Structure formats: C-alpha cells, structure tokens
Amino acid sequence: MTINDTQSGPAPATAVISDTLDHMTGDERPAAAEPRPRNGYATLWAGVPRELGFLLLTLPIAVVGFSIGVTLFSAGASLVFIVVGLFVLTAALFVARAFGTLELVRLEAAGRTPISRPTWNPIPENAGFWRRTLGPLTQGHYWTYLLHTGFVNFVVSTFSWTLTITWLATALGGVTYWIWAPFLPQDPDQLWLGEVVFGFFAPNSELLVSPRAADIILMMTVGIVFLVTVPFITRGLTLLHDTIARGLLSRWQNDDLRTEVAALAASRGAAVSAEDQSVRRLERDIHDGPQQRLVRLQMDLAAAERRLGTDPESAKTLIAEARGQAQASLDELRALSRGFAPPILEDRGLVSAVESFAALSSIPITVASTLDAGTRLPAEIERNVYFVVAELITNASKHSGATAVRVEMSTPTDAAGSRRLEVLVADNGTGGARFDVGHGLSGLRDRLTGLRGSLTVDSPSGFGTRVTASVPGIDR
Could you give the count of Cα atoms lying within 13 Å of 306 in the half-sphere of its Cβ? Predict the structure, then answer.
C-alpha cells in the first residue's frame, strides 16, 4: 500500500499546522505478533494463586447470595397475591444480578476469558410507575441470574470449596507430617496406618522401618501426590464455574440480534433524517441565493429591454449588471453542486475526488492517504464520505478561521479482520465546534450513522478542530 500525500496551496501555510498535527497519522502499522501462550505444568502453577483465591472465597459468597436470594424469592412468592410480593420478587432479581455480576468479575480475576455480559433492557424514561418498578420481572436474564445465585452456584460452590480444602489440607498436611508427627500423643496399642498399608500390599514381608517411620513415608508420599496435582484441581474447578457461568450468566444470541435490529433501525432513521436535512438546506440555499439573483436578473433584463430604444446607454448599463448577476448565480450554483457527487468521484474514486476538491479550496489543504489513488470502495460509502469531507473542509474555510487543513484517509483492520475506512479532517482554527441538533455536524453524524459509521469531534476552544469519520464494511 502506498502513501499519497498531495498539497494544495503554498508550503508555508501548511507548516503552520504541521507542528500541531505531527502526532496524527493515518498510517496503520501492523501489530506485532503476539507470543503464543505456553501451555505447560509451570503455566498451570502460575495460575494457582488466582484460582485458589477464587475457589476459597466461592462458598462464603455463594452462601450469602443463596441466603439473601432464596429468602427474598420465597417471601415474594408467598406474597405474590398481594402487591408487596411483586416488589420483593423484584428485589430478589436485583440481588441475583449483583451476585451474578460479582461471579463474572471474580472469574476474570481468576484468569478466565471475559464472559460477554447480558443486555439489560433499559426502561424508557416515559414508562409508567409499574413498568419502571417491575420491569425486571419480564426480563429473562434476571431469572437465569436468580437460578444461578439461588441454587446452582450454591451447590457447585459447596462441592468445589470442599474438594479444594480437602486437597490442600491433604497436600500440606502430608508433606509436613514429619514435622509435627513427633508432637502427637502416642498409645502403646496405636494402629499405625503405614504398617497397615504395608501389610496389605506385602502381607508376608517384614517392615524394614519403624511403624512411625512408615507412617511418615506414607503421609509424605500422599502429600507429594496431592501437592503435585493441585494445579489440575484448581484449574478444573475454576473451569467448572466458568462453564456454568457461561451457560447462565452470559449474553444470549438473541441479544445480539436485538441489538443488530435496533442499530439497523437507528441507521435507517439517521439516514432518512440526514437526507431530509440535506434537501431542506439545499432548498433554503437555492431560495436565498441563486433564485433571488435570477429574479433580479430577469428584472434587469426586462428593464434593459424597455430602455433599449429610448436610452441605449442606460440599457447597456443594466445588461452589464445582468451579466454580473448571471456570473454570481453560476458561482453559487457551482458551490452548491459540491454537495453532490462529482463526476471524478464516479470515474476515479474517493481519493482523487477529495484531492480535486481540496485543490479548489481557498486555504491550503494537505491530503495524505494510505489508499491508492484508484482504489474503489462501495458507491454509497464513497458518496457519503466525500460529502462529509467536503462539508468539513468548507466549514473549516468559512467558520473556523483556519489557515491550513489536513485530510488523512486510511483503512485500518479491526480485531475481527474486517477493514473500515477512517478519515481525519484537522485544522488549526479557533476550535469550539460541537454537535448542534438539526444542523451542522449533527447532520454529518446522522449521514454516517446511516452507514453504521461514526463521527467524533475533538475541538477544544483555541486549539483547532479534529473530526474523525469511521465507516465499517468497506470489504463488501
């Protein structure tokens, strides 16, 4: 991929903005390859502290959640036939949500891959009292969180916590038995476990060490075996909790579908709104500009026609004024036509069209792009992005007091491997640009929202303006 850097206007003016924009670049450097995670016994041991912290706390937390959740649910269910029961049930659901969220946070702290959180459907501000208060009762995620807090997590935590404590106690007790065994009380008729085990496996053999030594050897062996397997136990039990959490506490597929539908509806509405605003603005500009001049032109020509026979000199003056009105109308129509896709955009693509527009600007404009000049993008993306860039350049030259503008275009790749078009328009003007409802930057943002893109503005007062437009889906 090549870098195209073209400049319109004299070089000194561009230097004014270079100092403030050196840190901005469209170049996308390939990310360094991440080292492969090493899976081995040492890696398992490295995760033991975090996993032990998770497992040792799991039962106390589960008991508290179980106690509160089940108590509130039972009380609410028993009182459901009177109004107060519904409020108690709602409280139980909120408690379950809190404990479920805590479980997800603890799993992340234990080194597990983050689990996608559910979409908690917001209640509209204009909703009534009952809908705002009892809304969670109609949302499925609250009930799966209640199932997790009020039953599943308590059962699983009891098992995992008991096994963890047993395993650790056996491992640590076995490897340290030789230290504290001499301090244990002794009975002449004591049954030595080491002697019993040895006699079981070798019934006709003589024990070569004392019964106490046999006990120490047996305990040491068992302790070492349990200690060596601690990482497998902690990892397996943590995975058990992780699997259950992914089944009960994670985001559902229909959440993504619902979000996608809402995004598409918002995009469609934004696109329609943007087009409506553009048409209304064009109507207003034509009415206030060329239309008034053409009316004046018609009147001047009519007056000149009446005076042509009686006062040729006056008629000549009127015709000259009419020519000026015609030229001014033509200039305004050309300016207005920049809001439409120029032929060069259809023929040579977005980069060439932006460079051509920049060459006609009244202030110096530098265009830097990682796209080749002939690169073609989907037609609707090229058309809308061109309009956005043209509008931003026009605003910078008319309203910001800028003496130079820089336009950067690039196609970075996101984590999923799909490319997006990213355009930065920066100037060294007075700054202070903001989104005003109904016009200006809001219209441009709506236009990009129609493409499922975004528009961000960084415009501190007195330090210039940086506007970044991002549009996904340029691979299609």
Answer: 5
- Cite the residue boundaries of each domain of the chain with CATH code 3.30.565.10: 4-25+342-472
| Half-sphere exposure for 318 (CA within 13 Å, toward CB) | 18
Q: Which amino acid is at 206?
A: E
pLDDT of the residue at 440: 66
The angle formed by the CA atoms of residues 272, 277 and 283, to the nearest 5 degrees, is 125
- Token pair 């200006």 is found at 440
Cβ contact 448:388 at 8 Å: yes
First and final CA of the chain: distance in angstroms? 19
Beta bridge partners of 439: 436
Whether the Cβ atoms of residue 54 and residue 238 lie closer than 8 Å to each other: yes
SS3 35: coil
Structure tokens given for 263:
């995004």
Amino acid identity of residue 463, one-letter, is F
Cα separation, 68 vs 76, whole angstroms: 12
**Residue 351 to residue 421: CA distance in whole angstroms:** 12
Enumerate the β-bridge partners of residue 456. Answer: 468
For residue 450 the two structure tokens come to 């129609």
Domain boundaries 4-25+342-472, CATH class: alpha beta
Residue 48's pLDDT band, with cuts at 50, 70 and 90, is: very high
Q: Please answer whether residues 377 and 349 qualify as being in contact, where contact means their C-beta atoms are separated by less than 8 angstroms.
A: yes
- Which among 193, 225, 222 has a CA at the least distance from the CA of 207? 193
Distance CA 54, CA 235 (A): 11
Cα–Cα distance, 270 to 450 (Å, whole number): 5
pTM of the complete model? 0.54
Q: What is the DSSP string of 228-279?
A: HTHHHHHHHHHHHHHHHHHHHTSPPHHHHHHHHHHHHHHHHHHHHHHHHHHH
How many residues in total does the chain contain?
476
Which tens digits make up the pLDDT trace of 168-204? 999 998 889 888 777 777 766 666 665 666 555 656 6
- Return the half-sphere exposure (C-beta side, CA atoms, 13 A cut-off) of residue 442: 9
Residue pair 242/195 in contact by the 8 Å Cβ criterion: no
Dist CA 48 CA 164 (whole Å): 12
Token output for 22: 């050196």
The DSSP code for 427 is E
Tell me the backbone φ, ψ of residue 373, rounded to 5 degrees. -60, -35
